[in-house]
Structures are given as structure tokens and as C-alpha cells.
Design a protein that fits this description.
CATH superfamily: Vaccinia Virus protein VP39
Bound molecules: S-adenosylmethionine
Largest sheet: 8 strands, mixed
CATH topology: Rossmann fold
Order of helices and strands: HHHHHHEHEHEEHEHEHEEEE
Distance between the termini: 59 Å
CATH class: Alpha Beta
Shape: globular
Radius of gyration: 20 Å
Number of helices: 11
């Protein structure tokens, strides 16, 4: 009996079944938003028994041009150092910081960062790169375990402590009370595609607009679709499809950011990296008080007034 042939046959069958399941997740009935949110909550914020072994973030194994869809642990999906490995983890932070600096420079913004909040910090890959050069760093996530891991990683590169914010997936605004207009930079990287639909993603942009000081900048990444390559918007089975739950057209996200009161200034694309494909990164700025956000595609101009009652507490720990 040829064991190699049997193994190859089993792998092909498993691959075929996976494709079939994903196809039915696209065309089958849609699970309601509350069911998807519950599933997202139990996956990210539940205990390890509740989350189970399944995830579906495609990891491109180094050296492979095709990429392989494989079962990925929760720690890998959360971008923990031990989950994606040292090289990939360091690359995430270094590449995001380099891209961020390129956009800041192109916008003629000052190099110092001030107060930075990262929405969905995971295992701290970006935090370890940005926190050492920030005046204050606030790590926010829906998973308390990831917050602990993020703090642990940052403590190896920054002596001053960072703050943490625990987000409830279904009430994300709650965590931010008192922080309105107190952040200079809002980071959200490798998170929006995991939201259960475009409206949840846009809700996070609205939060960014509230947290930023006038003149502050959001550095936000989405997964994009195009007419030719349209990653599926899945309708159900969050756990299986989490890496592609929410995608936007590149121009669609540009316009929707403006509708949230954030002025889209620049964008850069990463069609493929070792983790996945179709990444678009936006530099969005909050206009100075009284300035207008121009809709770059529509022909209207909207005036943006000041939000809330003023500056939130700086230097106070939360959670
Ligand atoms: C793929 S990891 C990305 C971590 C980090 N931003 C990075 O670039 O390495 C996604 C993180 O987003 C968190 N997350 C998932 N849904 C979220 C939501 N709706 N709001 C905030 N964070 C969320 C997860 O707990 C996880 O830590």
C-alpha cells in the first residue's frame, strides 16, 4: 500500500471539502448580525475551551508562492509572537511602522507621535514597534488574554508602562468613554476584515473620529476587493471564515471614511505578503475644528464640528 498516495488523497479530499464548505458559506442563508457577533465574541474573547481549535486565517508558508489554507491556532489568528513566529511577528511591526512613517512624511506631519491608541492590538507586534516612540500608548482589544500578552511584549522594549482598554465587541463605544479627542494617532491593523460586516467596521471608524484630536491621524488597513478579485463576503460560520468576513472596494472605503468625518489623504496597497493578500492602508486625518471634509468622489462638502466636551484624560490607566 502506498502511504504517500493515501496521504495525498486525504489532503486533496480535505482541501476539496474546505472549498465546498466555504462556497456554501457564501451562497447559503445569511446568519443574523447578532448570531455572527456572538460567534465573534466567543471566538476572540471566550476561553480556550469555547474557542476550539479552528480558525481560518490563511498563512503563507515562507518560500511557498501558492500559499496554503491551513488550520491556524487562535494565537496565530491573534498575531501572538508564539503563534505566527518571530520573523513574521517582527515583520508586522517593522513594516507597519515604515509605512506609517512614509505616509506621515508625505503629509508633512511631525515625526513625534504623541498619544497612540491601537484598536485590536493582538499579541503586540505593532505595539512593540510604536510604543517605544510614543508619549503614551493605549492597547485596546476584545481579548483580555491578548492585552496581557501585548503588555508583556511591550515591557521588553519600553520601560514606561502602557495602558490597556478592554473592548466589548457588541458595545465598542463603552470602553472609550472619557477618551474623546485625546489621541493623536489611531491604529487599526489586521482587524477590520475580522468584523462581522461593513457596518461594524464603519462603527470602528466612527470611534476613531471621536477619539482623535483635531489634526490627528488614523492609520487603518482593510482587505479590498476589486472587480477582478473579489474575496467573498461570507454570510455565516464566523469561525471558519473570519479572515475574510468584511472587505471593501478601495474607493468605497475612501468615501465611507469621509462620511465618518475623517479626511482620506493617502493610501498604499500591499497586494500580497506572507500572511495574506489584498491589503489597503489609509492615512485618514481628522480636520481641524471648523474645517471641512471634502468628499473626494461625491460633489458635496460636509462641515465637521467639534466632538464631545473636550480633551480626555491623558496619562490615566484604564481597564
Ligand atoms: C489578526 S490580530 C491583529 C493584531 C495586531 N493588530 C497586528 O497587526 O498584529 C486581530 C486582533 O483583533 C482583535 N479583534 C477582533 N475583533 C475585534 C473588534 N471588533 N474590535 C477590536 N479588536 C478586535 C482580536 O482579538 C485580535 O487580537
Amino acid at each position: 500500500m502506498n502511504h504517500e498516495l493515501i496521504r495525498a488523497g486525504r489532503a486533496r479530499t480535505a482541501h476539496g471539502l474546505g472549498r465546498l464548505r466555504r462556497a456554501t458559506d457564501r451562497v447559503g442563508w445569511r446568519q443574523g448580525p447578532s448570531r455572527l457577533i456572538d460567534d465573534a465574541k466567543s471566538y476572540w474573547a471566550g476561553n480556550s475551551a469555547a474557542r476550539g481549535p479552528m480558525g481560518s486565517l490563511p498563512i503563507r508558508t515562507p518560500g511557498s508562492s501558492t500559499g496554503t489554507q491551513q488550520r491556524v491556532t487562535w494565537e496565530a489568528n491573534s498575531h501572538w509572537r508564539g503563534g505566527i513566529g518571530d520573523d513574521a511577528w517582527c515583520e508586522v511591526g517593522a513594516e507597519h511602522l515604515a509605512m506609517f512613517r512614509m505616509l506621515r512624511k508625505a503629509l508633512d506631519n511631525p515625526p513625534d507621535l504623541g498619544v497612540v491608541i491601537e484598536w485590536g492590538c493582538g499579541g503586540g507586534a505593532n505595539a512593540a514597534a510604536f510604543a517605544p516612540i510614543s508619549e503614551r500608548f493605549i492597547a485596546a482589544d476584545v481579548s483580555r488574554e491578548s492585552l496581557v500578552e501585548c503588555v508583556r511584549q511591550v515591557s521588553t522594549v519600553r520601560s514606561a508602562p502602557i495602558d490597556t482598554l478592554h473592548i466589548e465587541i457588541d458595545h465598542p463605544e463603552r470602553a472609550t468613554a472619557g477618551l474623546e479627542e485625546s489621541c493623536d494617532i489611531f491604529l487599526c491593523l489586521y482587524v477590520l476584515e475580522l468584523t462581522t460586516g461593513p457596518e461594524e467596521a464603519i462603527r470602528i471608524l466612527q470611534i476613531a473620529e471621536r477619539l482623535l484630536v483635531p489634526g490627528g491621524m488614523a492609520f487603518v488597513q482593510i482587505k479590498y476587493h476589486t472587480a477582478e478579485s473579489r474575496p467573498p463576503r461570507y454570510k455565516r460560520n464566523y469561525r471558519r471564515n473570519l479572515a475574510n468576513m468584511t472587505t471593501f472596494g478601495i474607493d468605497e472605503f475612501w468615501v465611507r471614511s469621509a462620511e465618518c468625518g475623517l479626511e482620506p489623504k493617502l493610501l498604499t496597497l500591499v497586494p500580497k505578503n506572507r500572511l495574506d493578500s489584498n491589503y489597503a492602508y489609509y492615512a485618514l486625518t481628522k480636520p481641524a475644528v471648523g474645517a471641512a471634509v471634502e468628499y473626494p468622489i461625491a460633489d458635496t462638502v460636509r462641515s465637521v464640528g467639534p466632538f464631545g466636551s473636550g480633551v480626555g484624560p491623558r496619562g490615566t490607566a484604564s481597564q
